[in-house]
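Figure 6 in text form: structure in, sequence out.
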């Protein structure tokens, strides 16, 4: 993997920034804000076999594919990770992620705990994971209804699986409780900013410090 430059001009390895949560806790909302407001961050657009929701755009929100195409993507090793979630298949196309990291960008993932486990197995040092919790079960249910994009049956199904999803919270590096979007965004943004400054991924620091030392000796 090649490296990019941080805002201070020092080279560093790109990171994979993962958001997971029970359905409806706010990952998509926070992801959109991060992409709008954090330069150098690219969204990983997943492939899925689920039906398109009203307002979703193919190629932007997801790559909507049929089951046969998804199967081909698996057998062709085109997915970095994949999982079955709520009876549909979801997966991360490998090529765009590798291209973004190679260009020195960070990549944002909105994926479930199964996908996060697979990314960690492949690249532990480069994965930063955040689990988003809702403030309460009733808020979670309200949010699923207020999104107004899923049937009552789909919402019941997602609520019934929320507890199992949440049982994976302790596998994550950071936990954010999404009471208020602006506050939750500020917390997630602080995590990304701090992780970008981690010494281990700042490959240009050795040269930078050497150059400072040689200036001091001159
Ligand atoms: N802090 C918040 N307070 C109130 N409503 C919120 C908050 N955060 C998100 N929402 C709303 O809750 C709904 C669900 O949010 P969102 O779609 O971001 O969840 P998600 O975690 O991405 O869900 P899924 O896993 O199903 O894709 C949306 O209508 C969103 O506007
Ligand atoms: N393992 C993966 N999980 C993914 C991926 N893309 C999305 N997801 C997760 O699926 C559920 C449902 O999403 P929805 O858009 O149908 O509401 C949610 O938890 C997502 O995080 C993926 O590529 N891999």
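Output sequence:
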């Amino acid at each position: 993997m090649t490296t990019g430059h941080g805002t201070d001009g020092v080279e560093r390895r790109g990171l994979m920034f993962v958001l997971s949560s029970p359905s409806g806790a706010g990952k998509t909302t926070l992801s959109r804000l991060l992409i709008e407001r954090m330069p150098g961050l690219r969204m990983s657009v997943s492939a899925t076999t689920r039906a398109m929701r009203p307002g979703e755009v193919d190629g932007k929100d997801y790559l909507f594919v049929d089951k046969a195409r998804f199967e081909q993507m698996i057998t062709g090793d085109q997915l970095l990770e994949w999982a079955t979630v709520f009876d549909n298949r979801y997966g991360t196309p490998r090529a765009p992620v590798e291209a973004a990291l190679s260009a020195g960008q960070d990549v944002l993932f909105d994926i479930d705990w199964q996908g996060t486990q697979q990314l960690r197995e492949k690249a532990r040092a480069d994965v930063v994971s955040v689990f988003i919790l809702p403030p309460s079960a009733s808020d979670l249910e309200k949010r699923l209804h207020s999104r107004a994009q899923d049937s009552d049956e789909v919402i019941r199904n997602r609520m019934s699986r929320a507890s199992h999803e949440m049982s994976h919270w302790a596998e994550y590096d950071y936990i954010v409780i999404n009471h208020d979007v602006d506050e939750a965004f500020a917390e997630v943004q602080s995590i990304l900013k701090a992780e970008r400054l981690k010494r281990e991924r700042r490959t240009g620091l050795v040269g930078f410090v050497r150059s400072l030392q040689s200036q001091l000796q001159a």
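Caption detail: Residues 135 and 180 are 9 Å apart (CA to CA).
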